[in-house]
Each structure stands twice: as structure tokens, then as C-alpha cells.
Amino acid sequence: MPRITRENLAEVVDGIDWDFLQKFVEVGGKQKAELDRLSKRPPSSSSHASLEEQINSRCQTALIGFKMQEMAGGGLTARGPGAGRFPPVQGGMLDCLNQLKKIVIDDYNASQRSQRTVNYKKIPVLLKRVRSLLRIFYDCQIGQKAHPDLLLCDWPQVFDVGLELHKIALYLSLDRPRLLAVMDGAGAEFETFVLEDPFDVGQYRLIAQALQEAVAKDEEADDDDRMDAGEVESKAGGDLAAHLMGWFYGDLHTALILNEPDGNEKEKKWARKAMKRLVFWSTNHVMRDVVGDSLTDAMKPIYWYKEPLIRFCQAGGMAALIGDWVNSSCQVLCEETLKDLPDECWENQTKKSLAAITKELQYKVAHESSEIVVTPIFVNAMYNMYRHYGISPFSSAGRQEGRDDPVLFYYLQHRIKKEGLGMNTKSDWRKLLQNYVDIPKSAERRYHWENCTISIKWDCLEFYGCNNPACPEKKALMDLRKRRVRGVRVKEVEDRLDKWGSRCPACSACGETAYCSPTCQKEHWPTHKPICVKKRKDRKK
């Protein structure tokens, strides 16, 4: 679809296939219900299923996601340049996957029957080859370049690669003796590949990340800068190499975490490394964008069981659980998990993990509704954060807000500090959060304004401050904006802008609008009167 502008909006709308869109929504609704069902903890009877049946069941989430991608023409349907060769070319993707399956599945099974030796040392070599071919394919696809090894990318659909890696990893993660045999037999190279090698993020995603960070730090960054950074990020989003490896890594790390060994020091070391990496991958926004739902899918067993869940949250993974509740293929599972979350999960949080938690909660409010804050999950989160860590995480989150974030944490810490609120019970928090839901629009705008960068204040002054469109001070500031030179800071002018945006008193009758002077309020009264009267009537009901 072309980029939508005011000029081409009608043309774009006319070009939409509405029948397809309706069908996509209908199918998506059914698939979402199936994903919700699959994300739930399997019944105890499932433990009697064969290994193959368990693996097929666990792969259903990936298959449903692919069906939706297929309908939308997503990147996982991409055909390899070397597809169609038979037999598969030696050293190509299909050859590597076939060798991996033979070693992990067939050779291991045979060794259990006849005590024969299996050459596990080839596994890390083959996995590195798989990773390399995925990287070559996506770098060439995004950069529109050629590479001699492209013909070794011989998959019919690139999703097949991720699915096969998922199955191989599930054979290991659901059969612990097999996993330990491979971890021991494949040696240090495999341990390094799984537990130490940096995740292959890709150069285009790294460039996009650096650009986004530069824009975020630049107080003078304007909408054009943010749009340019967004376009680079969108292009980099086509790199799915890491996403396809995500199942393999996620499955193995989850398996190493689930059953923490009692006495074996080697297995304890593996579990510690796996926990550290999984927490980082699952709570880092860049990594989550890179890996996507493949990691969430692999991590489901951690959310199913109390003991690994507590260890994961205490190690810093709480933000991952909340983030998956905010937006993932396992939202229902995470919601149920958060409803019954043991209090121990809130222990041992660090400044870094608390910052990640508050960021996810902010995101939830920003993309749903302020009403979400009075739900039991939110109330419990606020209560436990304050009970364990005081006002500090709220103050930090309030300072980090930007234009698109909710004013939630700024409001909470402001009220608690200003009024000396005790906040000792969940009832106290429910009341304060309900007050947040009910804050007037004028107060909400003022909180937003106080957390905007100077560039955003200049760009968006039409949406803040005095609600009188004919406000002379607003017009004067808009004239100053036209003459403003980027990077040239004039304190007197900026103080004038700040004062105008943050000190406009609200309408005393409804609180929905604000004015910089009685004159502006009087001029705007004919327009504001119907709204004001309605608001007052609504309050009396």
C-alpha cells in the first residue's frame, strides 16, 4: 500500500480490496481464538502423549501465525532463490536441516537402541551454516544485492526453515535426556553457539536502532526526523532472519530454565546462562522487535508453571510477562498468569527491570484505554511496586515520558508527593487510579506538556495551552516558531513558551478546557458553552 497522505487518501481508500479485508478480519478472529486456546497450559493428560504428538501440538501456534502471514503476503512466504532443486544441493539450507534432523532425531533414537556413538560435533557447524544462509538471504533482499551463496537458499518458503528449527529444538526441550546428550556431545562450540554467541540482529536493524536512539536523544528532533527514522525502521523490519532462529534459541533456553538442576554444576551453569540471555532478549525492545512472537511462543512453558515463573520474574523477566500481555500471541495466557501472579515475583527487581516494567505498563495504557488502570492486574502491579520499591520507579517513569506516552506515572508520583498519600493498601491504589481515569482533559494536556521536549512543544503548540483558537499569545508563539532556527536556543522565548503551555488555568465549571486569560475564556465561551453545560449535567447524573 502506498504511503497515505491527505492528497492521495481517496485514491488509497478506493484501492482497498474490502472483501479481502473483511475475510482477513473474520479468519483472524477465528485464528486468534485458536491461539488463545493453544497458549493455555496443557492438561495433565497431555503428558501421556507421544513425543511427536507433543511436538505437533506445540507447533500449531507457529502454523497459525504463518497462515495469517500467508493471507497478508508477509515476509515468511518468501521463496529461496535456489528452491526447486532435487536432490537438495550439498551445503544448502535443506541439506543442513536434513542433517540436523538426522543427528538429533534418527541417530539419537538409534543410539538408545544399540548404544552406537553419535557425532554430535557437527550440530554447531550446521546451525552456524543455517544462520549464515538466513543472514545472506535477508541482507541481499533488503539491500537488493547479489551473493554467490543465494542459490544455497533452497527453501520453498522461508517459514519452513523456522518451523524445522522449532521442531528440532522441541525434540531436545521435551526430551531432557536427549537435550543433555546433545549439550554434552556437541561440546563447547555448541554451548557457545546457544548460550554465548551474540544474537544475529542484522546490520539494517542495528542502523535503524542507532537512528531511533539518536532521534530520541535529540531535543531538537522534529516530526520529519521521526518519520525518517520510522521509514528506516520499517525497511529493517523486513529482516526476519533472527525471527526464524528465535524458536530454536527460545525453546532451548526455556528447557534449560524449566528444570533447575539440584547438584550438577554444569547444568546449573547452563541454566544461569540461559536465564540471563532469555531475560535480556525478552525484555529488550530491540530484541523483541527482532525476534517477534517466535520467542514468546517458545517461552510459554515458563508462564505455565509457578516455580520457573517466579525465578524468571525475579531475574528481571517481569517486563517480558507484562509485555506479552500488552501485545503478543499469548495475551490471554499472560493475562491469566498476571491475575494469579505470586507476590514473590515482585522481589529482587532492579532499577533496570522496574524501568522496563513501567514502560510496558505505559504502553498498555497508551494503546488501549485509561480504564485499564483500574483493573486488578494494574492495581496489583502498582501496589507491589510501591510496597517493595517506594516512589522511585514512579518518579523515574514520570521523567521518561514522551509525547505518545500516557501521563500515568507522572500523575501518580505528583499526587503522592504533593499530598503525602500513604498508598498502603490496594484500595488506596484503586482510588488513586480511578482519579487518574477521571482527570480533566486540560490537566492531562498539562501533564503531557511538561514532559515534552522543546522540539515537540514547538511542533505541537496548537494542541496545548490556551483553547481559544484566536488566542493572541498562541499566534505570537506561532510567529516565533516560523522565525525559529533549529539548534538556536533562546531562554527567554522558551520560558515564555513553557509558561503559556503549563500555567493556563482550567475552566472552573468543567475542567475540560484551559485559557491563558479571562479575555480568551470570554471570547471562546460561545463555542465552549454547549460542551461545558453537557459536562456539568453528566457529572450530576
Automatic annotation (TrEMBL):
Q: Where are the transmembrane segments?
A: none
MYND-type domain ranges (all copies): 507-532
Q: Name one GO molecular function term.
A: zinc ion binding
PROSITE patterns on file: ZF_MYND_2
Q: Which Pfam families match?
A: zf-MYND (PF01753)
Signal peptide span per the entry?
none
Q: Which UniProt keywords apply?
A: Metal-binding, Zinc, Zinc-finger
What's this protein's name? MYND-type domain-containing protein
Return the annotated region ranges for Disordered.
35-54
* Species classification: Eukaryota, Fungi, Dikarya, Basidiomycota, Agaricomycotina
Task: Give the highest taxon in the source lineage.
Answer: Eukaryota
InterPro entries to which the protein is assigned, alphabetical: Znf_MYND
